[in-house]
Every structure is written in structure tokens, then in C-alpha cells.
Amino acid sequence: MAKDKKLVEQITAMDEDFAKWYTDICKKADLIDYSSVKGCMIIRPYGYAIWENIQKILDARFKELGHENIYMPLFIPESLLQREKDHVAGFAPEVAWVTHGGSERLTERMCVRPTSETLFCEHYANIINSYRDLPKLYNQWCNVVRWEKTTRPFLRSREFLWQEGHTMHATAEEARAETVQMLEVYASFHEQELAIPVVKGCKTPSDKFAGAEDTYAIEALMHDGKSLQAATSHYFGDGFARAFDITYTDRENKLVHPFQTSWGCTTRMIGGIIMTHGDDRGLVLPPAVAPIQVIIVPIAQHKEGVLEHATALRDRLAAAGIRVKMDDSDQSPGWKFAEYEMKGVPLRIELGPRDIEQGQCVAVTRHNGEKSFVSLEGIADTAKELLEAVRIGMYEKALANRERRTYVCHTLDEVTAALEANGDGFIKGMWCGEEACEDETKAKTGVGSRCVPLVQENLGEVCMCCGKPAKKMVLWAKAY
Amino acid sequence: MAKDKKLVEQITAMDEDFAKWYTDICKKADLIDYSSVKGCMIIRPYGYAIWENIQKILDARFKELGHENIYMPLFIPESLLQREKDHVAGFAPEVAWVTHGGSERLTERMCVRPTSETLFCEHYANIINSYRDLPKLYNQWCNVVRWEKTTRPFLRSREFLWQEGHTMHATAEEARAETVQMLEVYASFHEQELAIPVVKGCKTPSDKFAGAEDTYAIEALMHDGKSLQAATSHYFGDGFARAFDITYTDRENKLVHPFQTSWGCTTRMIGGIIMTHGDDRGLVLPPAVAPIQVIIVPIAQHKEGVLEHATALRDRLAAAGIRVKMDDSDQSPGWKFAEYEMKGVPLRIELGPRDIEQGQCVAVTRHNGEKSFVSLEGIADTAKELLEAVRIGMYEKALANRERRTYVCHTLDEVTAALEANGDGFIKGMWCGEEACEDETKAKTGVGSRCVPLVQENLGEVCMCCGKPAKKMVLWAKAY
Fold first, then answer.
1. Mind listing the pLDDT tens digit for each residue in A218-272?
2. Would residue B10 count as lying in a domain?
3. Are residues B168 and B37 part of one domain?
4. Are A159 and A231 in the same domain?
């Protein structure tokens, strides 16, 4: 084995130091690298290929639902950012400011977009005149910047990649339906394609997006028992439309304001994949977004016919539309096993002289390490079935972890006891609706309100914090 | 016809005011809009869909050739930009500077990337160690910012979208071959997919990319006789590798520097499409990148069966992989004809009651207005053949225009005479190799050296400017 090739290095064990385990995977699976640009990350080809697969699936879904892509400027003049008061209050403290173009000071400084509601509103004011111009269903794939103090790859980075949908509708009902529809798109993408179970819910008023009437989100439980907000969908009513003077002539020839939504998901989802499915041997990727779905490792590859058969096998799988790679490098099979386990390739196929003789190969699924002998006849169909089984198996494993770590609590003492006994997780508990109780719960137990789940359960009559009559069941957790 | 729907408005005639004609098309064909962000443009859905089609074709071609996509940070710290002296001299005067994050002044200001050589080099220094790590063939699709004084949609905008390939190779020969290969990719994309004839050449030393040893470019002649630099490909030698201390251990176990290229094309190509193919009725799009390839206009659509047949026709074309739209809005056929001519849809199909009776439809190609009766039997194949004929026809038309406007000149007086007699165009003329003659030619005739064509012709023995022995044939023109 060549000395200058990297060996597959050990990563920190999850249970020893989850944060270090996470960054080890980001680096060792070649997802990211750091640079001299503090707080930003380089998304390396293997990581970016995951993002491209995510984009492809979501973009097609958005377009099926009638959305069109558009591209808005990177910059927002300060006066434009200030047009909607709640919005500027929420974002101004965390934007990057451009003050000079070349050697000249700008007459008005501009921020690098942290989100583009203001630009979309300005444009909508230009192009919306009549009810015939509605709805407008726009989406943008781009980079945004938020000047975070503490950063972590994918989870919280000063620059990140995302899509932001911005839509305008004739009626509040239609805009509300869009908000919920896009939440459903995100939820089904997570559950079906990413094999990540999510809870759909509405944020409490203290946790809404700056300027929104309602913020919906999906929350996913990570392996360490903390929650990740995986995507959000906002209903704005006509607040921004009023601030930006967007009006249209309705069917009765009256001048009225349209109703607005926005919705987004980011490269953060890659962090969610890592922390939901990863293990001590590295990344575990859901087949739908894995850059390599099947890795073929030839065994005793110097023996006659092995590489020819392995190549033919690769070509058959590729022809069936599977993203497949055959590694015929001079590393040992053991090295290759470890390398592609680190990279989270969902299915490994081993093919050696004896397998070829017997018309079979060995298939090993990454998420559970299960090994099976599989006939080479109909191998493309079998591989597809295995990948589908992997998807279901990964989802069930993640769901079982979430269920094991979901605790129903009626008092803050029960919350503390549950977390101490079983570790971090989701708390289901009733809430009176007061922000003071959210604050007190956070201060006393460490968990914050993540969302008011759309599917409510009645766990009792009183708020688990103050004991007064409860209004809603809330999902509580520590969060990323 | 509804009163509040926009009528198709007249645009300025090309011959009257080419610049105004150009911006009229950008606006009236719904390609762009302006915003309060000066010098930047909103790329509207119809314009962005052209860019998506361009991306799809080029991205697939880059990947076939072994390139991988990556994502680098948006910002470059000032000290990093300064590492390569020629590079910083070229770009510093035109970058946007970020000086504050939130309310805090940064300890070191950062520019918004005008191009990413410096970031790639820093990364390559981290990840390249051995000859086994080479070549590295990376590409990035992103936005960049250059603080231009005068801006025009697509052609020169403070922010634009592009791809930038950055590659590292073990040998100079391999890097040179990559540089030329990528120039060929751009050239064939322009000629085949965009139907734009181009001249491949090398920039003269005065016109090289900041920090490059050689800059190759493709130049296309626009309808008004000015040249557009449509894409560039640079060979860097090991200059940046030395400045950034990038080394690898070669097969003889010696520590050496790798050799580098970069290459890019931008949203500017959309400007090239407009100015090569457009006419007084609007945009004319090459089929490969047209968001709508075929528009079906039902005639007398209130009559029984017309809309059903038009819908069935649309479904047949869509099933054959054609990007097709059927417009059954309540606008008149004449309005629709003008609207989709403005939008440059390559092929229009009209279908009325009499056509249906006779099992035919009317096909009109946008670039030449030719009308033909076509059988509905095998219509999908016929439509594809027509689109292919459009592609060839558009290319030939553009080539004829270029040939009509290409003048061979032996003296500066001949240059002036040719431009006066025939209007702006390409000048082929011999050059001694001195920058002074480039400057004098520009000052006296208005044309600058665009490139030294790869395919050389010997037009004479002396420089058309100074009369001294000539070294190369140069392509001269006014330029965008």
C-alpha cells in the first residue's frame, strides 16, 4: 500500500464527544474544509454533490407546484432593509455591511442579503398590478450571510447556501394554504428522501421570523437528543405588502394588498443528515442524496477476470440509473471498506473470484452492517430493492431513536428528571401560552419551546410551568 | 381582450438606437428588472430559465470531462487577495469591501469575491501533497461582484452569475492542454448550442487576466459590428502556486510546484444571444436554451374541439421531450404572435378548425418568419427537425453577418475606410507585437486588439500600424 495515501483515521466516538465526532466527520468524510475566511466553510466536492442532489429533488418539486426561479441582487441598501420595522430589528445586528466600492465610500451602505424579503417586495410592487398577476410563485437558490458569533460547519455558518421561496397571493386563505403546502413539501422530503422523521409545527410568537404573522417549522431530533430546525415556512399576512406599498386591482376593481409567504431550507440539512444517521464509523447517507449509492470493491483484484467482472457489474448498475463507483485502486479491500463507510455510501458490493464462480456477490448495507449473498442475475433490480430497504431501515432506526427519547412531562420537575434519567430528547408538555413560562422553562430545565405541533395531544389541563390552564401542547428541547 | 393586460409594445428599432433596442428587449421580453440596488439586475424567471438551461448543458459537459463542483466562501480577506501581486493590482480597484459585521468593525476588511483564484490556491495548498492528488479539476457556479462604473444588463453588471473552473496539474503541458480543451468546450457550446460563431484566440499581453501567463478567449461579433468576449480560459504556469506555496512530491520524490488553469463564462452570454440573434420584433432564442421551444396558439379557440386538439398536441410534444407551452388565454392570436415573437420562442404552431379538419397545423420559425403547413402525423419528429433547422439557420445567418462585416486591412487608413464604408466589424490585420501599436491603432481608428486567432492567416509582412515586420495576425474590433 502506498505510503503517501492517507489512511482511514479513527474519528472521535459519538458518546465521548458528540461535537468533536460531528466535526471529525465533516472533515474526514471530505465534506468541508476551513479557509482563512473565518466562520465560512469550503463545501468540498463530496459535500457539494450531496447539496446538488438535494437541489435537484426539491427544485423539481417546487416547479411541479408552479414555482419559478428568479435571481435577486446580493446586496440590500440600508434604507430598503429598514422599510419593515420588525424585519430590520431582527436582522440588522447580524448582517455584513459593504461600505466601499473600489476606493470610493458608498453614499449609502448596503448589507449582504441575510434573506431577500425586502428585495422581493420591492420587485413585487413593480410587477403586480391586477388580480390577473396573482399568484406570483417565485423561488431563489443562492448564498446568504448572517454574521454569527459562534459557527459550526453546515449548522451555523456566516455564509450558507439555501433556497428562499417568496410568493404573493390574492387572498389570505390562499397564502396560508401555500405556507402549509411548502411545510408539507419539506416534511415529506425529509421523511421520504432524507429518512429523517420530523415534527411539523408552528413557532410560538417569541420565536417567529422577523416580520412574519406565523412561522411554521419542521423539527428533527438528532442522535444526541437535541433538536434541529430543518426548514421553515412563513405566513406574512399583508404586513410587508403594506410596508412596501404593494397593491393590486381586484375583480371588483378595488385597490387592495396581496398576501405573502416565504419558505426556505439550507445546507444545514446536511448537518441534519450527519447527526441523524451517522455513527462511529462515519457518515451514513440516505440513498436519494448519496453521491455514490453503490461502491463496488473487487476482492483479489489481481486475479484473472476479477476487474473485468467488477467493471461489467459497474456498467450494469450505472445503466440502470444507479450512482455507482468501482474502486480498483491499489489500496487493500479493508482500507476501502473503511473509506466508503466513512463516506457513508449506502451499499457496498464485494466481488471476488469465488463469487464470480458462483454467480453471486456480497452486499453490505451501511446503516446496519448487514451482509448478504446476492445473485449477479438481476443485480440491478436487487440493488434498487436494497437501496429502498436501506431508506426504510434508516427511517425506522431514526424514528425508534426519537421515540426512545421523547418524554411526556407534566411539571418542570418531571422534565428535569426525564432528561437526567434518559439524556436529552423531545419533551411533550402543555403550555399556557405565556412567554414568561417559555423563559422559565428554559432557565430551569434547559429546554426551549421548539414548536406547537400541528398534531396536538391533550396531555393534561394545566401548563407544566405555571400550573394555569393550558392552551397547547408544545414540543420542548435543547436545540442547534 | 382584457383592458388591464399589457399590450405588446413596440421596441426601439435596432438601426435607430442599438443600445436602446438592447435594453428594450431585456425589459420587454421579461428578462430583467431594475431595483434600488444600483448597477445590479434582477434576473426574472424567463431570463433565469435561459441561464438554467445554459448551466445544465455546460455542467454536464464539465462533469463528463472529470470536473467536480465545489463551493468556496463569498469573501476574501484583504491579505489573501494581496498574495499574488499582479492579481491584486488588477482587481483591487473594482472590488466591494465589507468592513463591518453587525455593529462591529472587522479587524481585517474583506472583499466580495471578484473571482476566486486566491481562495482556490489557499485550499489547494492544504489538500495537494503528492502527484497522486493531481490533477484537481474543480468548478464553481456562483455570483461574483466587480464594482463597475457603467453598467448594462447582462453585459456589465456589478454582480453577475458565472462558473469558474480552477484546475491543478502535475505538468505545464497538461495544464496547457486543459486551458485549450476548456476553450474548445466554450467554442463548441457557442457554435452548436447558442448558434453563435466565435473566433478562438489568445489575448495579447496587455489584455491578459491579472496574474495569468496566457489568456485565451472566444470573440463573437454582435449585430452592430462590435465584439463580445464570450468566455475566457487562462494558463497560469506555476505563478500562483509559487505565491501560495503549493507543492507536491513528484514520482521522483522531489518537492515541486503544480501548474494551474482557470476558465469561466457568465450571464453575459445571454447578452450575446440577444445581440447576435435579436431583431426588431424582439428576442430570438436558440432552441437549446429557450425556456419555451414551441408555442402553440389555438386559432378560433372558442370553436368546438380546438382547445382539445391543441391540448393533445401540447401533450404529444411534451412527451417527446420538447419544452412546449399552449396559450389558451383570452388574448387574440395576433397579440399572442407578437408576445412570443418578443420572447424569442423558436417555433410557433398555429392550430385552427380548418387545420384540424385537414390533419395539419401551421409552423412558423421565429428567426426567419418562414411559414409552412405540417401534417399532425409525426408532428413531434417534425417539430424536432424544425428546431434543428432553426439552430442551423440561426448559425448561418449570424455567420453571414460576421463575414459581411469582416474586413482585411493592411494600414490604419484602410481600417478607417472600411469602418466608414461598411460600419463596425471585425478587422483582420497584421501586428508587430508591440503594445504601442495596439494603443495607436485604438487611438486612431477606435478598434482594439481582441485576440490573436489560433487559426492564423498571413495577410502581409508588416504591422498595419508601424510598418515594421509583423509577427501575428490580430483580430481587431470595438468591444463590449
1. 999 999 999 999 999 999 999 999 999 999 999 999 999 999 999 999 999 999 9
2. no
3. yes
4. yes
The number of C-beta contacts closer than 8 angstroms across A and B is: 161
pLDDT value at position B474?
A: 98
A421, part of any domain: yes
Q: How far A104 CA lies from chain B's nearest CA (Å)? A: 9
Q: Are strands A199-202 and A159-169 parallel, antiparallel or unpaired?
A: unpaired
Same-domain check for residues A343 and A454: no
Tell me which of B249, B277, B305 is where a domain ends: B277
Find the domain containing A307 and state its range: 290-390
Most A-contacting residue of B3, B35, B82 (CB-CB within 10 A), to test interface: B35
CATH code assigned at B32: 3.30.930.10
Whether residue B4 and residue A123 make contact (CB cut-off 8 A), yes or no, is: no
CA distance B105 to chain A (A): 9
Q: B117, B173, B163, B167: which is closest to B143 by C-alpha?
A: B163
- Residues of A303-324 as b/e, b for ≥16 C-beta within 10 angstroms? eeebeebbeebbeebeeeebeb
pLDDT band at B2 (very low <50, low <70, confident <90, very high): very low
ipTM: 0.95
User: Do residues A97 and A74 touch, judged by C-beta distance below 8 A?
Assistant: no
Indicate whether B48 and B131 sit together in one domain. Answer: yes
The amino acid occupying position B351 is: L
The answer, yes or no, to whether residue B1 has pLDDT greater than 70, is no
Report the CATH number that the domain containing residue A343 is assigned in CATH: 3.40.50.800
Query: Do the Cβ atoms of B40 and A69 come within 8 Å?
Result: no
Orientation angle between helical segments B268-277 and B45-64, nearest 10 degrees: 110
DSSP assignment of A60-83: HHHHHTT-EE-B--SEEEHHHHTT
**Per DSSP, which regions of A304-386 are E strands?**
324-326, 347-351, 360-365, 371-375
Those residues with Cβ within 8 angstroms of residue B168's Cβ, 6 or more apart along the chain or in another chain = B124, B128, B134, B135, B136, B175, B241, B246, B258, B259, B260
For residue B5, pLDDT over 50 is answered with: no
Say whether A179 sits in a helix, a strand or coil. helix
- The torsion of the CA quartet A333, A339, A342, A348, rounded to 10 degrees, works out to -40
Which percentage of chain B shows pLDDT scores above 70?
A: 98
Among A48, A123, A249, the residue with its CB nearest the CB of B70 is A48
B321 contacts: CB under 8 Å, gap ≥ 6? none
Give the pLDDT of residue B9: 62
Q: Which residue of B has its CA nearest to A48?
A: B70
Same domain, B380 and B462: no
User: What is the per-residue pLDDT for A136?
Assistant: 98
The distance of B352 to chain A (nearest Cα, Å) reads 26
Question: Could A49 and B69 be called an inter-chain contact, meaning their C-beta atoms sit closer than 8 Å?
Answer: yes
Are A57 and A170 in the same domain?
Answer: yes
Task: Please tell me the pTM assigned to this model.
Answer: 0.96
Using a pLDDT cut of 70, give the percent of chain A over it: 98
Asked if residue B283 belongs to a domain, the reply is no
pLDDT band of residue A9 (cuts 50, 70, 90) is low
- Same structural domain, A188 and A52: yes
Is B69 in the same domain as B137? yes
Residue B211: what pLDDT? 87
Give the nearest partner residue to B112 out of A45, A98, A129, using CB atoms.
A98
Residue A183 CA, distance from chain mean position: 13
Task: State how many domains chain A has.
Answer: 3
Smallest Cβ distance to A159: which of B48, B74, B138? B74
pLDDT tier at B90, thresholds 50, 70, 90:
confident
Asked whether the predicted pLDDT for residue A86 surpasses 90, the reply is no
Separation in Å, CA of B217 to nearest CA in chain A: 26
Residue of A75, A123, A159, A167 for testing the chain B interface, max B β-carbons within 10 Å: A75
Instruction: Please report, for the domain that includes residue B451, its CATH number.
Output: 3.30.110.30
- Which of B402, B419, B442 is at the close of a domain? B402
**Which residue in B has a C-alpha nearest to residue A3's C-alpha?**
B130
Q: Within a domain: residue B222?
A: yes
pLDDT of residue B80: 95
